[in-house]
Amino acid sequence: MTDEPHDPQAPDLIRHAEGFADRYTPYDTPRPRRHVAVVSCMDARLDLFGLFGLDIGDAHLIRNAGGVVTDDVIRSLAISQRKLGTREVLLVHHTQCGQLTYTDDDLRNELLLETGYKPAWTPESFKDLDEDLRQSMRRVLASPFLLYPELVRGFVFEVESGRLREIRIPEQD
Ligand SMILES: [Zn+2]
Q1: Residues within 5 A (CB) of ion ligand 1
Q2: CA of 125 relative to ligand 1 center, distance in Å
Q3: Cα of 38 to ligand 1 centre, how many Å?
Q4: How far apart are CA 152 and CA 154, in angstroms?
Q5: 16 domain residue, yes or no
Q6: How far is the CA of 139 from the centre of ligand 1 (A)?
Q7: I need a labelling partner for 147 at 20 to 30 A (CA). Which of 55, 90, 91, 115 fits?
Q8: E strand or H helix at 38, and its extent?
């Protein structure tokens, strides 16, 4: 729960959308032109288009808290590869991630105390960025549902410097 004051933003966003059609260019295919899927944290500071030089239509961007490869990310990747022609998977974790600031039990207990329920899902918080990224890479490599699991690469984006650092796992060597 947060007590921060908040002015509703949706009206402003919707007003902006009203002018969008005037500068909109439709694309004729849902298949990403560069055959790439990026799985990254939802962090509002990450500009994946700027970072990787992507344009609209180039890649699937699959985002969640932490950029963790969960079962639902595997669902999206399986559809991305099998129905929409992507091959390579880039995973992006980042420094200063919110997932580093609490533990799974913290959040589970907070939810239990406030609502009377523990969630069926795992919060997937982590203490070690590189290790969590390696775990996500291994989940891709181990998935029986993906056509090109071996084409996964993992990176940590440093929000302080804008640099991208590749993380490798022994299975790739
Ligand atoms: Zn994050």
Answers
A1: 41, 43, 97
A2: 10
A3: 14
A4: 7
A5: no
A6: 19
A7: 55
A8: strand 36-41
97 annotated ligand-binding residue: yes
Which amino acid would we find at residue 145? Answer: F
Q: Which two tokens stand for residue 82?
A: 């099998």
Expressed in angstroms and rounded, the spacing between residue 23 Cα and the centre of ligand 1 is 31
Q: State in Å: Cα 138 to ligand 1 middle.
A: 19
Q: Are 28 and 5 contacting, i.e. CB atoms less than 8 angstroms apart?
A: no
**Number of structural domains found in the chain:** 1
pLDDT digits (tens, 9 = 90+) for 28-69: 899 999 999 999 999 999 999 999 999 999 999 999 999 999
Q: Is residue 138 part of a domain?
A: yes
pLDDT in tens, 101-121: 999 999 999 999 999 999 999
CATH number at residue 86: 3.40.1050.10
Tell me: is residue 41 an annotated ligand-binding position.
Answer: yes
- How many angstroms does the Cα of residue 22 sit away from the middle of ligand 1? 34
Q: What is the pTM of this model?
A: 0.94
Is 43 known as a binding-site position? yes
Tokens encoding 173: 């060597």
Distances (CA, A) of 52 to 27, 69, 112, 133: 20, 20, 40, 18
CA distances from 73 to 139, 143, 164 (A): 10, 11, 22
